[in-house]
Amino acid sequence: MITDREKHFMYLAIEESKAGMEAGDGGPFGCVIVRGDEIIGRGHNRVLCSNDPTAHAEIVAIRDACANIGNFQLSGCEVFCSCEPCPMCFGALYWARPDRIFFANTKRDAAEIGFDDAFIYGQLEIGDYKARQIPMVKMDMPEALMVFKKWIEMPNKNLY
Amino acid sequence: MITDREKHFMYLAIEESKAGMEAGDGGPFGCVIVRGDEIIGRGHNRVLCSNDPTAHAEIVAIRDACANIGNFQLSGCEVFCSCEPCPMCFGALYWARPDRIFFANTKRDAAEIGFDDAFIYGQLEIGDYKARQIPMVKMDMPEALMVFKKWIEMPNKNLY
Description:
homodimer, alpha+beta
């Protein structure tokens, strides 16, 4: 059951998507992050205006929210996305760990207007990294593993 | 066949991972992006020092590279990651579209030192979003679809 409260925040995310598109900042995507009834972060796609392929609405809003609350975790928060998150934003949301994620348009809707989320979801499903479209090359580097061992042994490290 | 050139750039990515860890900036992950033999972007994990859960080495390096070349696409570039990218960074790399991705440590190695990449990969494999650990709620919002329709109809838009 969707409440009026949830519709209210989703309308704000949709407003963000529209404002960003009309400003020419990037694609038509918006995001609002709330803790209780307080908006702690918001954003829209800024890929074009910032030349930053990672500046999707959710990433912009997560960075804004985390900066505002001084924490890299969003537990106790809810995220309202005008469109179902792409794999990059899905991963970012899982690292940030909000309590719930609401979305309106779907990845299929996004594909229909030319955004390739569905393609990237498909690439992730290919378990063998060698079979993916962007070639991935595994290099055996003992030096890299050595850094991981040092991390394990490091005293007083912040676990996260 | 891995060349000395490729090993050289991977060593630099590993150096980034070590420097970031020792500075307390975040986990032991580094990334270097090159175009030909020129380094155009680099970064290490800065989740802890910037309170930004999206500040993985690859994201930091992609943003650095794109800012340096003034483009949101990395075609013609190669990316050297000290560890196999997590789903967030995998998505970011697919949006940036470099020619090749090299990695040293694997997501299994990362899981062994406490980084949950494998868990997020698993969550993405769950096709039904309702069955995932962070609850996702679909809201039917004609207003959101209307913004997508406006995008399609918008003249002179930058397609990307």
